[in-house]
Known about the structure:
Layout: H1 2-16, H2 20-29, E1 33-35, H3 36-43, H4 47-59, E2 63-66, E3 77-80, H5 89-97, H6 105-114, E4 118-119, H7 121-128, H8 132-144, E5 148-152, E6 158-162
Antiparallel strand pairs: 1-3, 2-3, 4-6, 5-6
Amino acid sequence: MKLWQSTQKYFQQALHEITDNQVIEWMIEQNGSITSRQLAEKSGISRNQAIIKLNAMLIKNLIEIDYHHYDPHWDNFYKLTKSNLFNPTNYLNQSTSNKVAKLTDSQVIRLALQNQNHLTVAYLCALAEVSLEEAQKKLEELYLKNIFTLDVSENGSLIYTLQDI
């Protein structure tokens, strides 16, 4: 149980120690790209936590992997997505410009129960017809209340699993 709690704390730190906007601002400072190693050095989190944070941002389609750059340490380069490549400040203003529907705890739990107790941000977004930001916020809120646990799939996707009820 202590191992699981320390793992949960590790993921929480990775997701909440730095914001998506901070990462995007750092990427803008570096011509729109960053590696997990660079993010770790810039933010003070571990490289593994930087990978978790970048993967969470990949899932939210804020960034994408840049396959055209080579890193001698075999680290992926991440870049801003093409949709906002020419105007990266769109990301920074996104949360204030979108009108967001409020998800209830009950709705999210019902959707998880219908999906074998598992949800991802993208899946919740599609099912509930809310923004990615609202889906992420609600899942993180329920995770912090210990309603969901957080796992990472083999491909790096964050999967929220409903606790046994």
